[in-house]
Amino acid sequence: MSDSTLVQSLHILLHILTAVLLPPLIPGLINKVKALMAGRTGPPLLQLYYDLAKLARKQAVFSRTTTWVFLAGPVAVVAAGLVASLLVPFGHAPAPIHFQGDMILFAYLFGVARFATVLSALDTGSSFEGMGAAREVTFSVLTEPALFLGFAALVKVSGSLSLSGMLASPGFAISRATGPLILVLAGWGMVFLTENSRIPVDDPNTHLELTMIHEVMVLDHSGRPLALVLYGASLKLLVLGALIVGPLLPRTSHPWLDWAGFYAGMAVLALAVGLVESATARFRMNRVPQFLVAGLLATAFAFFLLQA
Amino acid sequence: MILFGLCAFLVASSGVPGLFLRTRGGLAAAWLMGLGALAGLAAAARALFAGGPSLALLHTPLGTQGYLRLDAVGAFFLVPVLVLPACGSIFALGYWDDRHESARRLRLLFGITTGFLVLLVAAAHALTFLLAWEGMAVTAYLLVMAEDREPVTQKAGWIYLACTHSGTLCLSAAFALAASATGGFLFTPLPMGFAATSRGTATFLLFLAGFGLKAGIFPLHFWLPGAHAAAPSHVSSLMSGILIKMGILGLIRVLCLVPDPPRWWGALVLVLGAVSGLLGVAFALAQHDLKRLLAYHSIENIGIILLGLGLGTLGKSTGHPALQALGYAGALLHVLNHSLFKGLLFLGAGAVVHATGSRDLERMGGLARTMPVTAAAFLAGSWAICGLPPLNGFVSEWLIYLAAFRGLAFPSSSWSVLAIAALATIGALAAACFAKVFGVVFLGQPRSPEAASAAEPPRAMRLPMTILAWACCAIGVAPVLVAPALARAAGAAAGLAGPVDLGGMAHLTTLSFIALPMLTAAALIWVWCRKGPAARTGLPTWDCGFTAAGPRVQYTASSFADGLVSAQRFVLWPKVHWRRIVALFPSQRGYRSEVPDPVLDRCAGPGLARTARGLTGLHFLQGGQLPLYLLYILITLVALLVWMVA
After folding, report:
1. pTM exceeds 0.80 for this model
2. What is the DSSP string of B11-77?
3. Contact yes or no for A15/A93 (Cβ under 8 A)
């Protein structure tokens, strides 16, 4: 009994450490892949860690238009992201916190992050940041139902009302669920790219304000708040990535091997994102909703296939 | 029960001392209202926590059973019915003081309306119910007409009066039909099988229309935005927070009395909820008037409540107690939550209107600097109405989501997935809308001189907003606090014998503990940010080299919402007025967009005007001559005689 408690607490510890320490590595991996694809050496893998360390020492600049809401944005993003990371299973081990209906909390925590970021952007009174904020909320109207319809399909398959149950369900072995699962993951893949502001929806590299969504909302952040913004974005990559990687992982014989599988899965996801970013261009802004509707339809079809 | 009677008396008479006092009438009203609320809350607590059978309050002089009965459902509704007017009467001290000529009248009517509301939640007989209902409706009409010299107010008031009376007409017919089945006007369960008959169908549809008109279910909502916007803000908060909920109370009472609702009842309620929710928030997004926008959000939240009721009713028809309990619990909690945060938001809007003298979003901006308390309270309300954790709106939406996800395992799963998709879309749209409201009103730079010179309202107006904001936080952070009362009320609403086992189905305790790490993490990160190298402040916002960035280049409410509004133009039909720029150096330019209400401005208004014009042809029948009228009576009598003989 005490042995299993020890193992369990080790799992939880590893989960928390992964959630806190791993995220900045993922953008590093993606950027490395992109650089190699373009024939460049690229920044070191740990670049974001260096950036964060540097930003933490830097002086922040606050515009005279801003209020406390400006700082509350990045703070809420990281706080919500950290709590969300406790709800999602990394691989097959159940998440540290799991209860019936935790996927709703999970989705709404990202709502918190979005709402706070948007308000933080509007607090600057800048028209560019207003533009980015308007785009962010517009696209979220299509990603949110896609996420929830995916949950509905997984609940239907697994019969579990918790992320830990529905993502790690052995039910995916049954053939009837394979097709819908692929559709859900395809739809969620689109949600993943949108929510993390990656190509083809948004471009994390461009600094042309008129074409951006997420980057333009954080133009005015600097110093420690900017460090939070960058860290929060990488945390989101990890947490939403775990949502997609989890169901695809094969179940191994040993729980520690499962962890290795999870890390490998995240690396493959980063590789895939890097490849997509190298191979495609960003959509024109008016094409983005069509892309998102495709994601929404994929998850809806997944549900209706299960219903039939 | 003495406490309940004391409460009703105190709140109803709260405006009376003000009639005789030269000053301090408002203070007397606030004290009386507060004392009445305390007495009523004690009565509600006894009904909710004491257990056992609910208390019969008043015995009829004629019959044996009570006209008034405070059961768990009524007691649960009694809480917002007392909290909001108490807060509103404090707010009125600063907002609508004795300098307004209508102050005394408004105070008196505010108390009387609340008195009728208190009676209504405890009504257990069609007669008391309809009396309280009409009393509430008529006094609320007089409250809306506080500024009766304004033509806009007059129009809104008339539309409201016409709608509420049409609703009462439907309700009277429905009660009569129901009485034909039960054999009396007391609220007793309808016989099995009645719901499936055509008479049962007619009864349900009449109830739905009557209560729907009051609740503002789409497409019966059209009186609501005008009336809420025209009324003084503490009256709007009462109307939006409580009055429209009485429609929900009525629906719950009716559904409670039907032992075997057909499945399509629940499905219809659910579909109406999805439609109201989606269209309510879509139209809210397109508004520029702060109070009209909040009013459309009430339609949205009524939609969310109906989604819960619909799921609960589906659970009742299909015999799934878990679905039933979660659906009703979510709907009931959302009733309470919505009245707290919507009351707060309307009071906040009142403070903004008080400070800037305008309801136009495009003239606001930067108020968070000059009105920090109002801004913080309004942010709490916005956070809650978007259903974001850890505030109270999330808890009730979570319960409704949970009901829908549970329903996926049952044969009614297509309806569940409709509810899930609708709730998710509503959530995202509501967040978009309140990002717009809070961002445009409180953040950025002031867009008008009035907004620039706005000042924090007096303490009497800040206090009720603070109370309501803390109430929203308390229910959100520790939903276990309301769980026992909610379980009992949901059990009574679902027609079950005892309280529902809420803890077994919804881990409200876990949800309470989740708020803790989130707030701790946020506080630690905040401190870490503040501890960093000293920040430079006082510099302008980086505007990409555009040096003359003033308030006028900021994103406006219209431009913020434009992406979503134009994406939904096939539903919203926005009207855009702008002058095409033809020459170089155009001297005049302008752009204005508006989204008229689809039902009032496009269907009911023109349609009724045409009908009225058509009916002028019948004027000759009403010529004003007494002999003619006597002749009509004679003809009617003869016709009746012939009919009876035949």
Report:
1. yes
2. HHTTTHHHHH-SS-HHHHHHHHHHHHHHHHHHHHHHHHHS-SSPEEEEE-SSSSSEEEEE-HHHHHH
3. yes
DSSP class per residue in B406-474: HHTTSTTHHHHHHHHHHHHHHHHHHHHHHHHHHHHHHSSS-SSHHHHT--PPPHHHHHHHHHHHHHHHH
Tell me the residue range of the domain where A62 lies: 2-307
B143, part of any domain: yes
CB contact under 8 A, A66 and B561: no
Q: Which residues pair with B594 in a beta bridge?
A: B575
Whether chain A has a CB inside 8 Å of the CB on B533: the answer is yes
A104 inside 8 A of chain B by CB = yes
SS3 A283: coil
Nearest Cα to Cα of residue B69 among B204, B339, B253 = B253
Nearest CA in chain A to B439: A122
Contact B402, A102 (CB under 8 A): no
Q: Which residues contact A303 (CB under 8 A, 6 or more apart)?
A: A149, A152, A153, A156, A180, B417
What is the phi/psi pair of residue A213, to 5°?
Answer: -115, -70
In a domain, B359, yes or no: yes
ipTM value of the model?
0.95
**B537 contacts in A (CB within 8 Å)?**
61-62, 64
Would you say residue B582 lies in a domain? no
Where on the phi/psi map is residue B178: left (φ > 0), alpha (ψ -120 to 50), or beta?
alpha
Look at chain A and report how many structural domains it folds into. Answer: 1
Q: Is residue B347 a part of any domain in this protein? A: yes
- The contacts found for A205-213 with CB under 8 angstroms, 24 or more apart, are A206/A282, A209/A128, A209/A131, A209/A132, A209/B544, A210/A128, A210/A131, A211/A282, A211/A285, A212/A132, A213/A132, A213/A135, A213/A136, A213/A139
Cross-chain Cβ contact B560/A149 below 8 Å: no
Domain carrying residue B61: 2-518
The domain total for chain B is 1
Alpha helix stretches (DSSP H) within B478-604: 483-493, 502-505, 508-530, 557-567, 569-572
pLDDT in tens, chain A (308 residues): 467 888 889 989 999 999 999 999 999 999 999 999 999 999 999 999 999 999 999 999 998 889 999 999 999 999 999 999 999 999 888 889 989 899 999 999 999 999 999 999 999 988 888 989 999 999 999 999 999 999 999 998 888 899 988 887 654 556 677 888 889 999 999 999 999 988 888 887 776 666 678 888 888 899 999 999 999 999 999 999 999 998 888 777 788 888 898 999 999 999 999 999 999 988 888 888 899 999 999 999 999 888 87
Token duo for residue B126: 């069609």
A290 part of contact set with chain B, CB < 8 Å: no
Q: Would you call the peptide bond into B219 cis, given omega within 30 degrees of 0 as the criterion? A: yes
Task: Extract the runs of DSSP E, i.e. beta strands, from B177-305.
Answer: none
Q: Distance, in angstroms, between A62 CA and closest chain B CA?
A: 5
Answer whether B339's CB lies under 8 Å from B84's CB: yes
